[in-house]
Amino acid sequence: MRRARVYLVVFSVLVLFAEGCAVSTNPVSGRRRLYGYSWAEERRIGQEADRQIVAQYGLYDDPALAAYVDSLGQVILAHSHLRRSDTPKEFRETPFVFRVLDSPVVNAFALPGGYVYVTRGLLAHLNNEAQLAVVLGHEIGHVAARHASQRAFELQLGQVALLGGAVLGQEVLGLPGGDVLQLGGTVAQLLFLKYSRDDERESDRLGVEYAVRAGYDAAEAAAFFRSLKRLSEQSGASLPSFLSTHPDPGEREQTIRELAARWMQEVGLATRENQVVYYARIEGIVLGEDPRQGYVADGAFYHPTLRFWFPVPADFQVINQPSQVLLVEAEQQAVLVLTLASESSAAEAARAWAAQEGLTVLDRGSERVNGLPAVYVVAEGQTSEGQTVRVLRYFIEHEGRVYSLAGYTLAAQYARYRPVFLQVMRGFAPLRDPARLNVQPVVLAIRPAERTAPFRALLPALPEAFTPEAVAIMNQVELDAVVQAGTPLKLPQR
Ligand SMILES: [Zn+2]
């Protein structure tokens, strides 16, 4: 949960597929074929899903970096099929948005209709502008070749994706559905829509072509794919989805080199690498989780920016998202959700919530929670599956904001979880401990190697949670590889 970003949890159902599939042009091949959506629909889907992506991940708060990534994206786009004079106007006139998401996960993805995302985790793992150019080109390639729309057509997503199931009942209760732990139904479908291997190969081809046309040494990207391979080996099961459907990074490393050589023959020599510019842009970027946006330590959740804390019960896992903090019980029998209410007082927020149709209020009252004005409501409602859910919800005023802490469980289980809910809600308190308040994230420092030595020997003492191997991967170098004196190194710094 982050300051000044108050998102309502909206379970939106996109009604986009009524028209069924569409015959239209592929901007890359110029041929007409069947798609899941028309281009206009793709643009609408992208726009709606973009809102959910931004709410889910948050934008990385560095306007200069965001402007840099967007302007590079626009340059690569200008060399893509979507901007050629013989491309139909509707494609040429579709604006693109390139965003930097505030996530430590190494990832890049695109939504239909012109939305491309890279994470700060990805930016930290790239070694120069040429590598970023290829990644952006790859994502532009997915949009240009309309891969999502092709796969959606094959899967007949239109029939399934938008029903959204339990939406209505959950909206009344404010209960996070299963998909809230991830993303709204359609976005999830689009993101986890598996592009085929051939789609990925086509996007690699297009990414290299666009980057070379823009003057970049696209062969540089090969080293990034090698480091992705190490990253996926290291992360084991938690392989980023971005990697899972892509061709083997080893294969890509090889083909990227071949493609770069081929396109340079066709288009002309492209040598731009721009490491100095790139490193100047990413220096200072946050590495790993940013504790200023909330962190768990010693059995409690601390939020230094919003200056509150509360105890985390044993057996509950904390999921900290920009719009909410979820505490999910191990057996998923109970969940606690912390959000910000849009009303200006606890009483008003409680009234507004309790007045909703479909809710039966069982109890309500006011009290002070660690000196803070609070109003609580106990209510019941039905899920769309016909189960009775009981909710204990506290609205607590703190420093001009109204926090909502809601505990959900089945009515039959309420007696069991009520004490746990109360432990959290009545434990909500202002954060005053300077050590907790002043916590700083680990950031990226760029330092020249002081001497010629194996990478391992050049590493300073690393902050907790950063292994030498992880830092080597970030630098696209083997731990035992000899690094020349003066080579800029990317190092985590507290
Ligand atoms: Zn891809």
UniProtKB/TrEMBL annotation:
GO cellular component: membrane
Signal peptide limits: none
Keyword RNA-binding applies: no
InterPro entries (UniProt xref): Mito/Outer_Membr_Metalloprot, Peptidase_M48
Domain Peptidase M48: 89-259
Keyword tags: Hydrolase, Metal-binding, Metalloprotease, Protease, Zinc
BP GO terms, sorted: proteolysis involved in protein catabolic process
Pfam families per UniProt: Peptidase_M48 (PF01435)
Any GO MF annotation of the entry: metal ion binding
Protein name, per record: Peptidase M48 Ste24p
Organism, scientific name: Rhodothermus marinus (strain ATCC 43812 / DSM 4252 / R-10) (Rhodothermus obamensis)
Lineage of the species this protein comes from: Bacteria, Pseudomonadati, Rhodothermota, Rhodothermia, Rhodothermales
